[in-house]
């Protein structure tokens, strides 16, 4: 049976193989902080509203949450051409899979717009535009989503782009709800509660990137295959180096004997980087 891998799993596997083992193989975890759960729910509702709009259905909004409606309205006003654009193919929550080296790489595009010479991948983010955008550029979502589309379509890499829209009308850094954001990465986000206008960040794709990602994926999947074989024989996945300073934000720092006494208890809760995105 082929193992499915998402961008969140690849991010975690590359960050710390041992945490990947504990979350996805051992299925260990701790309760999610209530504030994080609330923001995850908010993000899921926003995605559902955008999907309803794309399908031409009435928007079933919650009148007790004006922020949700304000965020949808502000997004539509900020990018009207996005919602009026004609396309050969256009679909919300579009899922694709690619078999590679014995694994099924799975992606879900919040919106996919295909035209003869252009393929646009769009993704809704319910946290502010990061001040330091490098970690998003290097995330597996930014790399995997165009890669899978190029491999499963006739589009050349140069025809493909991925655009993130940061859509929440107000936000603080502690309220991030997307699954690929860890506590350590929240330091890149704005920390004050402010009114925000929707902003976008676009990454164009290229043949050189495609080749580099194929090589990077091949190496990572080869490592995963070897680690799985060792795991079945009783050897755990390797730990991240302590010098990389990841353990202070990890759920399993005590289990891995990396616990620092000064680490706040709140940071020992399950981080959002360890939680799969919810596919609608």
Any overview of this molecule?
With 280 residues, this protein is an alpha/beta fold. The chain has a single domain, classed as Lambda Exonuclease, Chain A (Alpha-Beta Complex). The protein is 35% helix and 19% strand. The protein is built from eight helices and eight strands. The strands form two sheets. Strands 1, 2, 3, 4, 5 and 8 form a six-stranded mixed beta sheet that branches. Helix 1 crosses helix 2, helix 1 crosses helix 7 and helix 7 crosses helix 8. The longest helix is centred in the last third of the chain and has 26 residues. The two termini are 24 Å apart. The relative contact order is 0.19.
Structural class: alpha/beta
Low-confidence stretches: 173-177, 182-192, 263-280
Radius of gyration: 19 Å
* Total number of beta strands: 8
Largest sheet geometry? 6 strands, mixed
- Approximate shape: globular
CATH topology: Lambda Exonuclease, Chain A
- For the termini, the CA-CA separation is 24 Å
Strand-and-helix sequence, N→C? EHHHHHEEEHHEEEEH
Number of domains: 1
Work out the strand percent: 15-25%
Compact overview of the structure:
The chain has eight helices and eight strands, in the order E-H-H-H-H-H-E-E-E-H-H-E-E-E-E-H. With 280 residues, the protein is α/β, with parallel strands linked by helices. The protein starts with a strand and ends in a 48-residue tail after the last helix.
Q: What is the element layout, followed by pairings?
A:
Layout: E1 3-5, H1 7-15, H2 17-25, H3 34-54, H4 66-78, H5 80-84, E2 89-100, E3 103-115, E4 118-125, H6 134-137, H7 140-151, E5 160-166, E6 170-171, E7 194-195, E8 199-204, H8 207-232
């Amino acid at each position: 049976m082929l193992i499915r891998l998402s961008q969140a799993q690849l991010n975690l596997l590359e960050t710390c193989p041992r945490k990947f083992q504990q979350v996805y193989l051992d299925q260990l975890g701790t309760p999610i902080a209530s504030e994080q759960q609330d923001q995850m729910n908010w993000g899921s509702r926003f995605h559902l509203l955008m999907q309803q709009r794309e399908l031409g259905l009435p928007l079933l909004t919650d009148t007790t949450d004006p922020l949700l409606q304000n965020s949808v309205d502000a997004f539509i006003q900020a990018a009207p051409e996005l919602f009026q654009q004609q396309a050969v193919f256009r679909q919300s929550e579009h899922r694709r899979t690619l078999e590679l080296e014995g694994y099924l790489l799975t992606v879900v595009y919040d919106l996919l717009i295909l035209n003869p010479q252009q393929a646009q991948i769009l993704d809704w983010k319910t946290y502010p535009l990061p001040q330091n955008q490098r970690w998003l550029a290097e995330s597996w979502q930014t790399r995997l989503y165009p890669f899978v589309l190029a491999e499963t379509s006739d589009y050349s890499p140069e025809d493909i782009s991925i655009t993130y829209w940061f859509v929440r009308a107000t936000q603080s850094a502690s309220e991030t709800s997307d699954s690929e954001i860890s506590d350590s990465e929240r330091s890149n986000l704005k920390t004050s509660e402010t009114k925000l206008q929707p902003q976008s960040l676009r990454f164009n794709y290229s043949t050189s990137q495609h080749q580099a990602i194929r090589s990077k994926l091949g190496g990572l999947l080869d490592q995963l295959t070897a680690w799985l074989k060792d795991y079945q024989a009783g050897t755990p996945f390797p730990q991240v180096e302590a010098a990389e300073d990841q353990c202070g934000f990890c759920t399993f720092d005590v289990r891995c004997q990396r616990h620092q006494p000064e680490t706040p208890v709140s940071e020992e809760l399950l981080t959002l980087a360890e939680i799969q995105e919810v596919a609608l």
